[in-house]
Amino acid sequence: MSRPALVSLPDPALAADDVPLSDSLVAELGRRGWRVDDDPLRARWLRLAACHSTFLYEIGRTPISAAALAALGKVGATHLVLAVADLVVERTRPDKVSKQNQLIAHMPGRVARRVADGDPSAGRRPGPAPATG
């Protein structure tokens, strides 16, 4: 399922370059077709979206307001819920709308708990575990 591209974003300033990004996050986004290595502007916005707002105050150069960060957080959380709902419907194909709605209503909490518990299968498709070694 494709997602619409965001409109052109303004540059959040060089201060965002100091916010660290997890290598595993960058790698996972790249595997899913959202590369940040070649796009400094995209990387800056990802850095801002991936950090807690208090971190920006700790580094002393806040390139974006707390209100803007809260809005980005809300957009991200809403997008995640919708993406999970789309994935649930795509994978389960429930035969009744009521079953679909029940799955969608409870799935984000289940996924969040599995991720928080460190479940390595939380983000993979159902089926046999991938081979290791």
Notes on the structure:
The protein folds into 2 domains: 9-64, no CATH class; 75-122, no CATH class. The protein has 133 residues and is mainly alpha-helical. 6% of the residues are buried. The protein has helices at 23-31, 40-50, 53-59, 66-92, 97-116. Residues 123-133 have a biased composition (Low complexity).
**How many helix segments?**
5
User: How far apart are the first and last residues' alpha carbons, in Å?
Assistant: 31 Å
User: What is the count of distinct domains?
Assistant: 2
What is the CA-atom radius of gyration, in angstroms? 17 Å
**Structural class designation:** mainly alpha
Low-confidence stretches: 123-130
Order of helices and strands: HHHHH
In helices, the fraction of residues equals 55-70%
Number of strand segments: 0
Report the β-strand fraction as a percent range.
under 5%
Tell me the major beta sheet: none
Let me know the average pLDDT: 71
Give the overall form.
elongated
List the helices and strands and how they pair.
Blueprint: H1 23-31, H2 40-50, H3 53-59, H4 66-92, H5 97-116
